[in-house]
């Protein structure tokens, strides 16, 4: 991180944290980038040495590829693609960069902006909702009943006047019919058939920022790392780790199946299952950095992603008595065998893994993968 600060020239006359940190030269930046590229190439070589290349199946092509605000999958297996023609930096993806410290995302949009919420079924049928003025930044979207949608901004400040209302209920006509607060530092949210809202939080949502968690302030709403909400901000459940497993510091992966939730989190990356009654079961993990988690019954999971460019790594694992046991490491590829671009968006919902790239919707079902066991890393 220090070299990035130097490359950006952060520090000013007083330096970074009181230390004078000179700006990197162009040659130094290029050298660091080359080193990073070499590290990614080596990590991929090691991860995929002897790994089976697993072609994904194409569901649909010709989806929107530009102006993407959000992509997700809902409990009905529908793809959600939200687009906008607005300038991201001025609306939903603005950031503040301060010399001598860091870059922070805006908690609200610089100005309200229009979005088109497109919901697509695997058979190609679709419907859309136009929202003329959305005020939240870094939004996530999930369906509610009666063709309503929930739009939730990823960040939320606690001010002297109270918390920002970063959760909006959008009616079938695109109007905002309710607003409430789900807290700061939201990684993901997924809704259930009965309208419950499972929300996972990153480290800032757990430990506090943007006014949350100050010594004399309000504890972060996401302090447990995983919360189930109902109606307009009624908190039904907060995660407590099963015996022997750590608390959530940053919930990397969430998968809601029916009314129940599965998650994989930092640190140690255990896999946990939370029933609709709030009871939790867990398995110690072996796979670091997974950002998506597919679930096949209560016996096998698929962990997708990893550090250093491993966006296309799929590790299948059996759920044993108290830990996961790796079955196989696979490389997800396009239907024709080409590697997936690094910018590919990977999502897991239920037992399926979805890849969204270049206007294409690709998928693979854990049940379709042979249950062979090989030496895996």
Provide structural commentary:
This protein is 9% helix and 43% strand. By secondary structure, the chain is mainly beta. Among the domains are: 1-36, no CATH class; 76-238, no CATH class. The protein is globular, with a radius of gyration of 21 Å.
Helix and strand composition category = mainly beta
Q: Write down how many β-strands occur, each being a DSSP E stretch of 2 or more residues.
A: 29
Helix content: under 10%
> In DSSP terms, counting alpha (H) and pi (I) runs of 4 or more, how many helices?
3
Strand residue percentage: 35-45%
Record the strand order, biggest sheet. Answer: 1-26-25-24-23
End-to-end Cα distance: 28 Å
Low-confidence stretches: 1-21
Which outline best applies? globular
Taking all residues together, what is the mean pLDDT? 91
Q: Describe the biggest sheet?
A: 5 strands, mixed
What is the rounded Rg?
21 Å
């Amino acid at each position: 991180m220090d070299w990035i600060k130097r490359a950006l020239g952060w520090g000013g006359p007083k330096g970074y944290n009181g230390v004078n940190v000179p700006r990197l030269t162009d040659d130094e930046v290029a050298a660091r980038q080359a080193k990073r590229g070499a590290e990614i190439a080596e990590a991929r070589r090691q991860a995929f040495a002897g790994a089976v290349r697993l072609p994904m199946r194409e569901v649909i092509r010709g989806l929107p590829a530009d102006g993407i605000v959000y992509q997700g999958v809902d409990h009905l297996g529908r793809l959600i693609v939200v687009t906008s023609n607005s300038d991201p930096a001025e609306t939903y993806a603005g950031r503040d960069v301060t010399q001598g410290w860091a870059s922070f995302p805006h908690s609200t949009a610089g100005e309200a902006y229009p979005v088109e919420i497109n919901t697509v079924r695997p058979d190609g049928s679709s419907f859309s909702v136009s929202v003329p003025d959305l005020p939240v930044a870094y939004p996530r979207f999930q369906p509610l009943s009666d063709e309503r949608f929930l739009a939730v901004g990823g960040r939320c400040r606690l001010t002297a006047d109270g918390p920002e209302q970063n959760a909006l209920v959008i009616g079938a006509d695109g109007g905002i019919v309710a607003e409430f607060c789900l807290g700061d530092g939201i990684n993901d949210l997924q809704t259930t058939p009965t309208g419950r809202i499972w929300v996972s939080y990153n480290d800032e949502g757990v430990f506090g920022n943007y006014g949350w968690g100050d010594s004399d302030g309000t504890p972060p709403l996401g302090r447990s790392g995983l919360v189930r909400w109902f109606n307009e901000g009624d908190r039904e459940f907060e995660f407590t780790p099963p015996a022997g497993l750590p608390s959530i510091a940053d919930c990397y992966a969430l998968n809601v199946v029916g009314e129940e939730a599965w998650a994989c989190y930092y640190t140690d990356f255990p896999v946990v299952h939370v029933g609709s009654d709030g009871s939790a079961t867990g398995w110690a993990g072996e796979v670091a950095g997974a950002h998506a988690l597919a679930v096949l019954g209560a016996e096998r999971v698929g962990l997708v992603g990893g550090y250093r460019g491993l966006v296309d790594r799929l590790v299948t694992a059996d759920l044993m008595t108290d830990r996961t046991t790796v079955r196989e490491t696979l490389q997800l590829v396009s239907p024709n065998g080409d590697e997936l671009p690094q910018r590919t968006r990977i999502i897991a919902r239920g037992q399926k893994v979805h890849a969204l790239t270049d206007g294409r919707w690709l998928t693979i079902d854990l049940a379709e993968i042979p249950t062979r066991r090989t030496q895996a890393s």
